[in-house]
Amino acid sequence: MTCVLIAPFSAVEETVHRFRPSHLLTLMVEPFVPTPESIRPECHLRISVHDVIEPANGIVCPEHGHISDVLSFARSWDKSSPFLVHCWAGISRSTAAAFIVLCDLHGAGHERRIAGALRFHAPYAQPNRLMVKHADQLLARQGRMIEAIESMRPALPAWEGQVVQLPVVLEEP
């Protein structure tokens, strides 16, 4: 079964080697992340945003256009190999993107189940709420994505996440 992988920047090389993803989504401003040899250049999307929820001087805030690009990119994934998403720590931007990708893939009505799966597999996940808000609007979820993230039990403290495998097929509750 294929999956969406979430990783911190420090684990990208090892994760690519171990899982052989077909797609790589990078959500960082710095440093520049080169495309691994095993991934076609058109299957690596770099979104340069900071992990923030409101604008500030010198900060790149996630915007609708960034999330629209994430959705378009994820829709090009054929699900035959894993989809890897990473940010610096693997806790906020990358968990938000994985949640967004899975919400789009499964359609409306599965937001809470996906948030529950995210919390189960990544107990430290703190999805970037601005990214989720933009996705909720773009996918016309009428607040259900935000509500699902807010309904998650509190995150465990962590400086850096682990490599997480979120199954594409959701288990029945």
Structural summary, described in words:
This protein has 173 residues and is α/β, with parallel strands linked by helices. Helix content is 36%, strand content 14%. The protein contains six helices and five strands; from the N terminus they run βαββαβααααβ. The chain has a five-stranded mixed beta sheet, with helices on both faces. Helix 3 (93-106) runs antiparallel to helix 4 (111-121). The chain is globular. 41% of the residues are buried. The model has no long low-confidence stretch (mean pLDDT 96).
Report strand %: 5-15%
Number of domains: 1
Distance between the termini: 19 Å
Low-confidence residue ranges: none
Overall form: globular
CATH superfamily: Protein tyrosine phosphatase superfamily
Radius of gyration: 15 Å
- Strand line-up in the sheet with most strands: 3-2-4-1-5
Number of strands: 5
What is the overall pLDDT average? 96
Order of helices and strands: EHEEHEHHHHE
| The first-level CATH class name | Alpha Beta
